[in-house]
Design brief:
globular, MFS transporter, Growth Hormone, Chain: A, 14 helices, transmembrane helix, transmembrane, transmembrane transporter activity
Length: 411
């Protein structure tokens, strides 16, 4: 009995330490975003240069997910999360010690590699740790936590760094020192955490990413890939445009406001996904599609009024965040529900690969478009393209429902 109680306590400790580590890693993904304006003013970077820095990050994410995102199924969860923390720590040190353009490129590539190791591994690890110390009928709580950390961490990173950059001394140093402290705490916690996936022996031959999905569930899995791709695309459009829109169209130079705008998007998403956590996937996707279209409409309207509106811009961002986050949560629940437990990280790596491709296209595309058109024109064009994609995919998204789903275990 004492042994069982000790095991439960250790798994509970491991669960929350993994959640903190996951949150820290996700926060670092958007941490540099509010600082790009400072780098640009200091070194006279163009928006295209910043876009290329982001593209280097995107290459790191996609390469890491494709080549290594699934390997924790074979080699254990902790080693890959510790490796991700190490990569982000090195990235933060480079940001501090080598803030020139080559250093920014290298730091962002390392950060991208870390994200690829983190996305599927942390979500799978949380799911397994929760199952080890909580009843099966409560598994939706782990899925909700993983979903909220994935998106909430992005908002938290931008918000905290924006505030530090605005009000703390040494804005290009202090934010990274704070992140290094979070990484150190996370690493210590993970070292003492329980492993849920022992290393396979003999070690299977290496192969790149592929999704292990039962044949009967392929349509559901493909629909989930489309769902996260669209959700991350609409969120990526806002992230890519927020700072430029606030500065160029609304003439707001506050770094805190830029970080808060991004934070608001993901906060709205957390509120909605928590509120509808027990809804079925079809119901979640129905409301999320409507919210994404409504949010895009409000966002475009805020820019094209005779006097552009900050209030409408923030409302549009919040609605987009709610819709995109709900789409992500519904799609994530489906993938976890249909994937073989022994191959969960592999399926989630493919899932997140679709998402990070989706978030990269509008960010990079907007950076290129802003070299040739105004901010308002770029916003209108990308909003139309993404809205058309959402509407085209809606019939497909709303046709699927995981086998044996119920409100208690669905979203």
């Amino acid at each position: 009995m004492n042994t069982r109680a000790h095991s439960t306590t250790r798994h509970r400790f491991s669960y929350w330490m993994t959640a903190f580590a996951f949150l820290s890693l996700q926060a670092f993904m958007t941490a540099p975003s509010p600082l790009y304006g400072l780098y640009a003013r200091r070194d006279d970077f163009t928006s295209l240069t910043i876009t290329l820095v982001y593209a280097a990050y995107a290459v790191g994410v996609i390469a890491s997910l494709f080549f290594a995102g699934h390997l924790s199924d074979q080699h254990g969860r902790r080693p890959f999360l510790l490796a991700a923390l190490g990569l982000d720590a090195i990235s933060a040190i480079i940001f501090i010690a080598w803030p020139a353009l080559p250093g920014l490129f290298l730091a962002r590539v390392l950060c991208g590699l870390s994200v690829g190791l983190t996305a599927s591994t942390a979500t799978t690890y949380l799911t397994e740790l929760h199952a080890a110390h909580r009843p099966p009928h409560l598994r939706h709580r782990a899925q909700l936590l993983a979903s909220n950390i994935t998106l909430g961490g992005l908002g938290l990173g931008a918000l905290v760094v924006g505030l530090l950059a605005q009000y703390a001394p040494h804005p290009l140093t202090i934010p990274y020192v704070v992140m290094l402290a979070a990484f150190a705490i996370s690493a210590v916690g993970l070292i003492f955490s329980a492993e849920t996936r022992p290393r396979l022996d003999p070690r299977p031959p290496y192969r790149p990413q592929r999704a292990a999905v039962p044949p009967h569930a392929r349509s559901e899995f493909i629909a989930a890939l489309v769902g996260i791709g669209l959700a991350f695309a609409v969120l990526g459009m806002f992230i890519g445009l927020a700072g430029t829109f606030l500065l160029v169209v609304l003439h707001h130079t506050s770094l805190a406001l830029a970080g808060a705008a991004i934070g608001l998007v993901f906060a709205a998403g957390i509120v909605l996904t928590t509120a509808i956590n027990r809804w079925t996937p079809r119901a979640v996707l129905t409301i999320s599609v409507l919210l994404m279209i409504l949010g895009l409409t409000i966002l475009v309207t805020s820019a094209w009024l005779p006097t552009p509106s900050l209030t409408l811009f923030l409302i549009g961002g919040a609605v987009i965040g709610a819709g995109g986050s709900a789409t992500f949560k519904g799609s994530l629940t489906v993938v976890i529900g249909i994937s073989p437990p022994a191959k969960l990280a592999e399926s989630l790596a493919a899932f997140f690969l679709s998402g990070y491709i989706g978030i990269s296209i509008p960010v990079i595309g907007l950076g290129i478009a802003l070299q040739h058109v105004t901010t308002r024109d770029a916003l209108l064009g990308f909003a139309i393209i993404i809205a058309a994609g959402i509407l085209a995919a809606t019939p497909f998204l709303l046709t699927y429902r995981p086998k044996n789903a119920s409100p208690a275990t669905a979203t």
